[in-house]
Amino acid sequence: MKEIRIRNSRLQFVVGDITAQDTGAVVNAANTQLAPGGGVAGAIHRAAGPGLWEECRGLGGCGTGEARISGGHGLPNAYVIHTVGPVYSGSKQDAVLLRSCYLESLKLADKHKIPSISFPALSTGIFGYPVDKAACVAVEAIRDYLQGETGIEIVRMVLYDDASFREHVRAADAVIAGADLS
């Protein structure tokens, strides 16, 4: 695990299972229908049970870069925050939309007074976002948010494997050193 302090908050990086985190909310790398699928979304829906999909059907979907909130159902988390990352195209808009996913998810956590939240590496699976580029966007967005007024105490990046963990730690170290990663 790696941890950095940003004002009154902690940004943590771990390799692990997103469905087994002890944070108040877990972020789902969702599709626009908020339906069960593969990857992170499939794992979260399987772990949460059928009640999550029943609730998600009533949320009206979610656009790319937006976020919605539901209960945690069978997960150890009180909430699931669903966000739809961009399918990587190589355009500048990809980073804008990915940044929005992190910021909108953090805003929902604050709105619902959730003190801790776990994120997967959004858009890096079947959506094809290169992990090194996605890590830079994620770390900068989270840092920028935590530098403002927030009640969030812990933001945890839960990475699928060691390679993703290393890329996120590299991005975090560069941000700490003051490098512009964009």
Pick out its properties.
globular
Tell me briefly what this model is.
The protein is α/β, with parallel strands linked by helices.
SSE sequence, one letter per element: EEEHHEEHEHEH
Strand order of the largest sheet: 1-2-7-6-3-5-4
Distance between the termini: 25 Å
Question: Which regions contain 5 or more consecutive residues with pLDDT less than 50?
Answer: none
Number of helices: 5
Mean pLDDT: 95
Give an overview in words:
- The protein has 182 residues and is an alpha/beta fold.
- The protein has a single domain (2-176), classed as Leucine Aminopeptidase, subunit E, domain 1 (3-Layer(aba) Sandwich), CATH 3.40.220.
- 38% of the residues lie in helices and 20% in strands.
- The chain is built from five helices and seven strands, in the order E-E-E-H-H-E-E-H-E-H-E-H.
- It has a seven-stranded mixed β-sheet with strand order 1-2-7-6-3-5-4, with helices on both faces.
- A hairpin with a 2-residue loop joins strand 1 (2-6) and strand 2.
- The longest helix has 20 residues, at 92-111.
- The two termini are 25 Å apart.
- The model has no long low-confidence stretch (mean pLDDT 95).
Please render the helix and strand layout as text.
Blueprint: E1 2-6, E2 9-15, E3 25-29, H1 39-48, H2 50-57, E4 67-71, E5 79-83, H3 92-111, E6 116-119, H4 131-146, E7 154-159, H5 162-176
Parallel strand pairs: 2-7, 3-5, 3-6, 6-7
Antiparallel strand pairs: 1-2, 4-5
